[in-house]
């Protein structure tokens, strides 16, 4: 009889060691090693069948491989389909993650309803977090009732597979993969071993049946997807549903996509009737003022392939007392980049801001972290400091360097086209990025922050 041995597995990454350790040697997590059921050493290395006895699928020319099985099928939710590259793919598996309460279940209920109503076949929602009655109440509120929309409240993998066999759905939504377990492997529900086994089984069924599948995943307090990292490698697409609970805006951001672009972003609005697609969120992050206000400047940021206008606001307060560090409060912007821009304004442009309190934010709950917003932050801070407003029809695009230069950023023509579409008539961009200006727009190139400050002041003086 084979000798039994004890192993310890990390609940964060799945790394296995022969003896207990306080810290996982692979991922560095503390207190994550737990004992697994003893296994026979004879089973540790499965025997391999001889190559001659294994059935092989004959290789074929790539020109003879049919592409139809990988065609997208639209769900009817426009922004969801946009991020997926055109819709769900039969046999494709999507992993959707997000913070608790952000609206993942609401969004997927709408997707399932549109799929069933659009003739895509039955849609099955297997929920391990809610009862069938709770899902029905949400469906009543959203108006998402259809005979082909099936609900099953299950936490056992065998039961979920049985429902798949009975209903033969074209779309399966599992909410969530961490709540389902199987008796075939050891471990608690949501553990590394269970999550890996459940996901692998559902992926195999989806591929065999040509069934689109969406797995809902939990996130950790660091914002990463809970469970083994291999889960993200197994699925065909990984998407994150993001949003602030205090804001109606929701963003669906693609991270990985085998059937389309991996950098698309979809915009949604959370309303009382559900999650609504925003195909044109152009003015959502701008304020409407009759007259320009000091301390504001508009920039154009890239979210995936989408250009979005965002208004940056800054308020420069009084000087801090001697020996006291001035307050810096940021909302929607990168605090490190704000401090860098303030240092450049102080040292290169003679703006005494390092000893002043500075507050900076974006409008509408939009989070902007790309360097292309640096110039707008600099103009907004300078405008608040001097009480001289920036012209309301100017957009500023560019990255600010430590020497005071303005560096190039990608996709400037696309940004300018979006700004011109929304009525902006002037733009300040880095040197060499002007190119052919959109119709009705004047584009000025600036090589430094000082030059950009002069251009914005001239534009406002010209309008005054």
From TrEMBL:
What GO MF terms are annotated?
ATP binding; ATP-dependent DNA damage sensor activity; damaged DNA binding; hydrolase activity; zinc ion binding
Question: Looking at the keywords, is Nucleotide-binding present?
Answer: yes
According to UniProt, the name of this protein is DNA repair protein RadA
InterPro entries found in the cross-reference section: AAA+_ATPase (IPR003593), DNA_repair_RadA (IPR004504), P-loop_NTPase (IPR027417), RecA_ATP-bd (IPR020588), Ribosomal_Su5_D2-typ_SF (IPR020568), Ribsml_uS5_D2-typ_fold_subgr (IPR014721), Rubredoxin_2 (IPR041166)
Question: What's the superkingdom here?
Answer: Bacteria
Motif: RadA KNRFG motif; annotated at 256-260
Q: Which PROSITE patterns match?
A: RECA_2
Its ancestry begins with: Bacteria, Bacillati, Actinomycetota, Actinomycetes, Micromonosporales
Tagged with keyword Repeat? no
Q: Which terms does the UniProt entry file under GO BP? A: recombinational repair
Source organism of the structure: Phytomonospora endophytica
Q: Where do the annotations place ATP binding?
A: 98-105
Instruction: Please explain the role this protein plays, according to its UniProt record.
Output: DNA-dependent ATPase involved in processing of recombination intermediates, plays a role in repairing DNA breaks. Stimulates the branch migration of RecA-mediated strand transfer reactions, allowing the 3' invading strand to extend heteroduplex DNA faster. Binds ssDNA in the presence of ADP but not other nucleotides, has ATPase activity that is stimulated by ssDNA and various branched DNA structures, but inhibited by SSB. Does not have RecA's homology-searching function.
Q: Which UniProt keywords apply?
A: ATP-binding, DNA damage, DNA repair, DNA-binding, Hydrolase, Metal-binding, Nucleotide-binding, Stress response, Zinc, Zinc-finger
Start and end residues of each RecA family profile domain: 69-219
Q: Residue ranges of region Lon-protease-like? A: 357-464
């Amino acid at each position: 009889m084979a000798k039994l041995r004890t192993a310890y597995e990390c609940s964060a990454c799945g790394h296995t060691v022969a003896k207990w350790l306080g810290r996982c040697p692979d991922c560095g997590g503390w207190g994550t090693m737990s004992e697994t059921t003893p296994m026979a050493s004879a089973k540790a290395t499965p025997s391999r069948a001889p190559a001659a006895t294994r059935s092989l699928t004959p290789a074929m020319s790539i020109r003879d491989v049919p592409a139809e099985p990988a065609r997208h099928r639209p769900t009817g939710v426009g922004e969801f389909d946009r991020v997926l590259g055109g819709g769900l793919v039969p046999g494709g598996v999507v992993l959707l993650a997000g913070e608790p309460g952000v609206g993942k279940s609401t969004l997927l209920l709408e997707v399932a309803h549109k799929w069933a109503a659009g003739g895509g076949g039955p849609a099955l929602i297997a929920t391990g977090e809610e009862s069938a009655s709770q899902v029905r109440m949400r469906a009543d509120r959203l108006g998402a009732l259809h005979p082909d929309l099936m609900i099953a409240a299950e936490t056992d993998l065998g039961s979920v597979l049985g429902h798949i066999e009975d209903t033969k759905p074209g779309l399966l939504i599992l909410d969530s993969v961490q709540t389902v377990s199987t008796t075939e492997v050891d471990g608690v529900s949501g553990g590394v071993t269970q999550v890996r086994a459940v996901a692998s089984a559902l992926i195999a069924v989806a591929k065999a049946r040509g069934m689109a599948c969406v797995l809902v995943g939990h996130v950790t307090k660091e914002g990463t997807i809970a469970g083994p990292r291999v889960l993200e490698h197994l699925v065909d697409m990984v998407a994150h549903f993001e949003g602030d609970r205090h804001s109606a805006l929701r963003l669906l951001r693609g991270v990985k996509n085998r059937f389309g672009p991996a950098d698309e972003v979809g915009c949604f609005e959370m309303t009382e009737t559900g999650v609504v697609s925003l195909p044109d969120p152009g003015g959502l992050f701008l304020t409407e003022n009759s007259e320009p206000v000091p301390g504001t400047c508009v920039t154009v940021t890239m979210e995936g392939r989408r250009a979005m206008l965002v208004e940056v606001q800054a308020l420069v307060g009084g000087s801090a007392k001697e020996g006291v560090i001035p307050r810096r409060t940021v909302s929607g912007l990168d605090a490190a980049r704000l401090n860098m821009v303030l240092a450049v304004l102080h040292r290169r442009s003679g703006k005494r801001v390092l000893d002043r309190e500075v507050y900076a934010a974006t409008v509408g709950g939009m989070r902007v972290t790309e360097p292309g917003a640096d110039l707008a932050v600099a103009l907004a801070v300078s405008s608040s400091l001097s009480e001289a407003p920036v012209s309301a029809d100017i957009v500023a695009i560019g990255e600010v360097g430590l020497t005071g230069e303005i560096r190039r950023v990608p996709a400037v023509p696309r940004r300018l086209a979006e700004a011109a579409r929304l009525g902006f008539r002037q733009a300040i961009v880095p040197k060499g990025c002007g190119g052919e200006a959109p119709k009705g727009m004047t584009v000025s190139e600036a090589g430094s922050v000082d030059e950009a400050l002069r251009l914005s002041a001239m534009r406002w003086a010209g309008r005054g």
